[in-house]
Amino acid sequence: MMNLTLQKNKVAGFCDKVALFSLYVVAFQLPISKAIVEIFSTLAIVCFLVKSILLKEDAPKAKINLAIIFYLFICLFSALSSSNPKISIRTFTGKTLQEILFFFTVFGTLNTERRLKNFLYVFISSSLLLGIDGVCQYFTNHDFIRHRLSGYAVRTRAQACFVTPNDFGCYLVSLIPFSLVYIFIRQRYKAIRFLFLSIFLLLIFCLVLSGSRGSWFGFISGILFMTIWVKPLGIFLLILGTVIISTQQLFSPFLKERLANFFIFVDNGSIDRKIIWHAAWKMFLSRPWLGIGLSTFMFNFNKFVAPGYLYSPPYAHNCYLQMLAEIGVIGLTSFLLIQILFFYRGIKLINTGQRTFSWYITLASLAAILAYSVQMTLDTSLYSLDLGMLFWMILGLGMAAMERLKAETVTPK
Q1: Which residues in the chain come in under a pLDDT of 50?
Q2: Hey, is 88 helix, strand or coil?
């Protein structure tokens, strides 16, 4: 019996290390290779589940877990009652279920401060590489990571190795809060703070070059949120806005026009979005409670779009509206409940906890999810493999940081 227990512990320890290594690979490769992300995220999930079964470990207790399970149940029910069950069930098993299992894997595996730090070092190192790639791609029309040609003219919009500049923008607003908080975390050497400041400014520069207004709105929302607890960021945001406005003439004609008309949506892309949103709303009204079926928006699009629409069926370019159409009011409510519980727990902890490493990472996670959530109102980020995985990864990272912060917080008697 003793030998069997030792053998179980040995296998569980090995699985834990493989899961952790796989998370590091996913964190670095997320914007680079979808195939590698698919392989190593699956490996991380399998190893985490094996370890949990062998050690009879439950998932870390949190109210958000119940909301996520409820969301998963609604997605399954929507898939089974879908207008195209084949598409919906394939999406449920191949994407929705995988992403949620990945959330629990990140949440359960990053269970020490050292693991959190190492994960973030890998995560931010990847963003540094993508930032350099984005600048190179903007000036040369060619990224050096995937050797992809830009879909846009030289010096129009930066997209690095992503398919679109909006995808690049979503990735940037999710990473910027983490590079930012490292400037405030105590470091042994001042040069480390300078390094993180340089990464932060590089990512900001790439965000401007992306020309992604949804991402710009997300960034502003995230920074304003962080300003509630880190007051100097308000001054920084004011300085940054002044610098961008004063150097506006140095940018490409496209970026100059977009900055000048920041809140005016009259370009062709915005007009096209309005047509798509109108069709999505009609789609939602056709089956308002559980929707037309998970991942069937494009399948049903031509039935609801105005006659004469010239393009192929798209995504809704508003993740919340697409959720309304596909999984209905109940599905969208369950997803929003996940976000509400995440912010409720995070804000409660940062209001009571000391400003430790875990405190800053919790704050950065909240800001990153807020920025991502705002960006989702104008794009399709949650529906792509890499950016969808990014959302659940940051959610799991944030919950892991909250667990550390909760353990550090002494509750007054």
Answers
A1: 411-413
A2: helix
